[in-house]
Design brief:
Largest sheet: 2 strands, antiparallel
Strand order of the largest sheet: 1-2
Distance between the termini: 38 Å
Structural class: mainly alpha
Organism: Flectobacillus roseus
Keywords: Membrane, Transmembrane, Transmembrane helix
Strand content: 5-15%
Radius of gyration: 24 Å
Number of helices: 9
Helix content: 55-70%
Number of strands: 4
Protein name: TIGR04222 domain-containing membrane protein
């Protein structure tokens, strides 16, 4: 349940509008376009982004957002006037900074732990489970992720695992049928062993390369996932408050946010401009 002393902050965050009225391409539509989402889903992510920011402000321990929420955070950071002045300074009265991971397995385990605790804190504060189509389980949150910005006008996007798994039975079937056919046609001839051996090697290469690709992505995800947020109260020097968090004179909260897809691993931004 939302603490009584934080209701005013929560109401201010809820009333904050990211979409500027009477513009043809508002924040929510840009967020939808850049992530391939429907506009309705984008609006839901924005609501969860506001909840994440609220949790950052009141949590005594680091908070990590889902990847979807992190995308809203990344985009909001590019609206510098809206984020730093209207939102952080005037609404939150705290400056929340977005910091990328330093990399390595230690950082990966740290943010995985933060995320699991964040899901529990969300349920405690909002008295409901986080929506799983936005706040995904931590195993999926820090799974196989290697983001890169692409222009879909110039590239076709095919999901690797889905595509390969769909054609793998076909490849195996062709291999078996081909071997049987060659055995019948060339039984007793050395050509059978040569051709079937070549086919077998090709299939093995395809399977090995796919497995190797997945392994490499897993390792890169572990090393490069995770980034943090620090916040400072308006005015005054800031002191450290636990892992990945700072606090100003007004409190001892730390907050640590986002996962893979941050700057340093996929070109997200940290308070950057246009």
């Amino acid at each position: 349940m939302i603490p009584q002393q934080n209701l005013d902050l929560w109401n201010r965050i809820q009333q904050f509008e990211l979409d500027v009225p009477n513009v043809s391409f508002p924040f929510s539509k840009r967020l939808a376009r850049e992530n391939g989402w429907t506009h309705q889903y984008s609006l839901k992510v924005i609501q969860e982004y506001k909840k994440f920011i609220f949790l950052c402000c009141i949590s005594p321990t680091p908070i990590t957002p889902s990847d979807e929420v992190d995308q809203a955070w990344h985009l909001h950071l590019t609206y510098t006037q809206s984020y730093w002045i209207d939102f952080c300074q005037n609404t939150l009265q705290k400056h929340i900074h977005h910091n990328p991971t330093e990399g390595g397995n230690k950082e990966a385990h740290k943010f995985d732990d933060y995320y699991s605790k964040s899901l529990k804190f969300y349920q405690e504060i909002f008295d409901t489970l986080p929506p799983q189509n936005i706040w995904r389980p931590h195993q999926e949150r820090f799974g196989k992720q290697q983001f890169q910005r692409l222009d879909t006008n110039n590239y076709w996007l095919i999901q690797k695992n889905t595509f390969f798994n769909s054609i793998k039975p076909v490849l195996i079937s062709f291999f078996i049928v081909g071997c049987l056919f060659l055995f019948v046609r060339a039984s007793g001839s050395g050509i059978f062993w040569v051709i079937s051996g070549i086919i077998g090697i090709l299939v093995a290469i395809v399977l090995a390369s796919q497995q190797g690709s997945n392994t490499n992505h897993d390792e890169r995800a572990k090393v490069d996932s995770g980034c943090g947020a620090t916040f400072f109260s308006d005015g005054g020097d800031a002191g450290h408050a636990g892992d990945g968090g700072h606090s100003g004179d007004g409190g001892g909260h730390g907050c640590s946010g986002c996962g893979s897809g941050c700057s340093g691993c996929s070109g997200g931004c940290s308070g950057c401009g246009s």
